[in-house]
Amino acid sequence: MRQTFLLGTFQAEGRDLVLGGDGRADSPGHCAKFGSHTMLELHANVVIDIQLVQSNECGGSYHMEKTGMERFLAHLERQGLAVGTMVTDRHRQIAKWLRETYPHIEHLYDIWHVAKGFSKKLLAASNERECQVLRPWIKSVSNHMYWCAVSTPSGEGAQIVAKWESVVSHVQNVHTGHGDLFQSCIHGRLEGRESHKKWLEPSSKAAVKLETLVCNKTLCKDILKLSGGSQTSAVEGFHSLLIQFAPKMYVFSYTGMLCRILIAALHFNENANRVQGVTKTGEAMYSIKYPKGRKGAAVLRRVLKSPTYVGAGVCLCVCVCVCVSLSLPDSLQVQPLPQVLPITNQDLHKGPEEGCSGPLPFSSGCMCTAWSLCLCVRPSLMCVLLIVRRCSPVYLV
């Protein structure tokens, strides 16, 4: 129902969709059983579809992402919606299939995926003999890739490549005569730490190695299709959230996996467009983080308002109601649910061992009962109980 509402809203707007998609396997490695393909509308920042594919449906786990994309675009065609731009990673199967099947769709690549792969290759090259001088330039070259895509108007892929290749001359302290499309660097006088980096010597092993990596034909073809606007960072954020609902270290049935990814999608859409929190004096709130991927580097991030759990709370209520309405084995002793009352804010912060202040539906005893019911009757719905301590005040109906 929620998906139908979203698609109807986009249809009423009458615009081409800007989509971002990516696949996720249910387990690490290359032998996953299930693969979910998530599709977001990047301008609205909402999940509009998730396709769950089993590996034996499509001939192997490598083909699951492409199969999910096929099913999603077929569904959009039936709904009469048009796709203008598709932003993905560099999945070769999907790139070839979109180019042949949907040539009218502009297929672009997410910058982060391309920059990450190139940075790994440059890091490996910097470990070679006489190439250690490349290491201080890794972050700068990666940032240059972002600048090339963001600073170039849409549709000017050749200019993006010209800007990208100019970095070979820049690191040798040559800032003019790059080419016809991009003749010279546009930065001013270098100051601070940028002015202290050691320039590469022309024709040195490090300079030749960098030029070989930068001017690689396959990479330049990918640079040509970089997206300067919308990115798939929101898709990666959803996959990070999905780990809380469906960890990769546990095995789930098809129904169990489907329930978990749908509940995660509802929770993501509910909180996707939260505003930034402010202090009592009205100042915007920020925090300093040290992500693992940055290897100790600090990152400044906005502090958003606290998330809500209305969608997940409703699913929890439905789960409990369905479970208690079914017949149970005689060996399972179940106490009747107490009188239904709304959850108070004080009860939301109490642990299972503390219990609740009154005869509430999610008190300690009732929580154990509901958990036992889901384990015995509906294991696939057990995931909704994981958020019991965070659901918003709701009534059991």
Give a summary of the structure in a few sentences.
This protein has helices at residues 2-13, 55-58, 64-79, 92-101, 111-126, 138-150, 157-165, 167-170, 205-214, 217-223, 233-245, 254-271, 310-324, 345-348, 364-376; strands at 17-25, 34-41, 46-54, 83-88, 106-109, 286-289, 299-302.
Give the second-level CATH assignment, the architecture of the largest domain: 2-Layer Sandwich
CATH topology of the largest domain: Nucleotidyltransferase, domain 5
What is the string of helix and strand elements?
HEEEHHEHEHHHHHHHHEEHHH
User: What percentage of amino acids are in beta strands?
Assistant: 5-15%
- Could you name the ranges where pLDDT drops below 50 across 5 or more consecutive residues? 327-397
List the topology elements.
Elements (H helix, E strand, L loop, with lengths): L1 H12 L3 E9 L8 E8 L4 E9 H4 L5 H16 L3 E6 L3 H10 L4 E4 L1 H16 L11 H13 L6 H9 L1 H4 L34 H10 L2 H7 L9 H13 L8 H18 L14 E4 L9 E4 L7 H15 L20 H4 L15 H13 L21
Parallel strand pairs: 1-4, 4-5
Antiparallel strand pairs: 1-2, 2-3, 6-7
Helix pairs in contact: 5-6, 5-9, 6-7, 11-12, 12-13
Describe the structure.
This protein has helices at residues 2-13, 55-58, 64-79, 92-101, 111-126, 138-150, 157-165, 167-170, 205-214, 217-223, 233-245, 254-271, 310-324, 345-348, 364-376; strands at residues 17-25, 34-41, 46-54, 83-88, 106-109, 286-289, 299-302. With 397 residues, it is an alpha/beta fold. The longest helix has 18 residues, at 254-271. It contains 15 helices and seven strands. It is globular and about 75 Å long. The model is unreliable at 327-397 (pLDDT under 50). A hairpin with an 8-residue loop joins β1 and β2. 41% of the residues lie in helices and 11% in strands. The protein has three domains: 2-110 and 230-273, Ribonuclease H-like superfamily/Ribonuclease H (Nucleotidyltransferase, domain 5), CATH 3.30.420; 111-223, no CATH class; 310-390, no CATH class. α5 (111-126) runs antiparallel to α9 (205-214) and α11 crosses α12 (254-271). The protein has a five-stranded mixed beta sheet, with helices on both faces. It has a two-stranded antiparallel sheet with strand order 6-7.
